[in-house]
Design brief:
CATH topology: Arc Repressor Mutant, subunit A
CATH superfamily: Winged helix-like DNA-binding domain superfamily/Winged helix DNA-binding domain
Number of strands: 0
Low-confidence stretches: 54-67
Mean pLDDT: 79
Oligomer: single chain
Shape: globular
Number of helices: 6
Largest sheet: none
CATH architecture: Orthogonal Bundle
Strand content: under 5%
Distance between the termini: 23 Å
Helix content: 55-70%
């Protein structure tokens, strides 16, 4: 959802990933976790879908945390505004840095799993995430990062 911006498309990709994984399970070499392997497949499927898009005019509106009770309509509006700013900042990142941040912080992968999912070394995964965070800090004003 975070990479594609559409719940429906994310559900389609999830089904596609599971079908691909089922067909490729015999080739899984157990060099990393199954979770990282699945995220790697998902990353490639998402990248193909994103590459096919002609225009990227719609911004993803991140859904606010359902567990947090907003103080009122102003709090909800402020959260949505921050979410729009963060999504816009994510869109300005290099695809590799955006992908690293989403897999690290949205999907909760460790750096080793992130590296396996992206097919890179762990040090490179750490560097991508670090560069992505630095770029986000430059793009967003300090008020949004609270």
């Amino acid at each position: 959802m975070a990479m594609l911006g559409s719940q429906g498309e994310a559900e389609e990709v999830a089904q596609e990933v599971l079908m691909i994984a089922h067909g490729a399970m015999a080739s899984f070499r157990f060099e990393g976790s199954v979770r990282a392997w699945l995220f790697g497949i998902a990353r490639r499927v998402c990248a193909k879908r994103i590459a096919k898009r002609v225009r990227r005019s719609q911004l993803l509106h991140l859904v606010h945390d359902a567990n947090a009770a907003p103080d009122g309509p102003h709090d909800l509006a402020a959260r949505r505004e921050r979410a729009v700013k963060v999504r816009a900042a994510l869109e300005r990142l290099k695809p590799t840095e955006r992908e690293a941040l989403l897999l690290r912080y949205q999907a909760g992968l460790g750096f080793r799993e992130l590296a396996a999912a992206c097919g890179i070394e762990e040090a490179a995964a750490r560097k991508r995430a670090s560069r992505g965070l630095a770029a986000m800090r430059k793009i967003l004003d300090p008020e949004v990062m609270r």
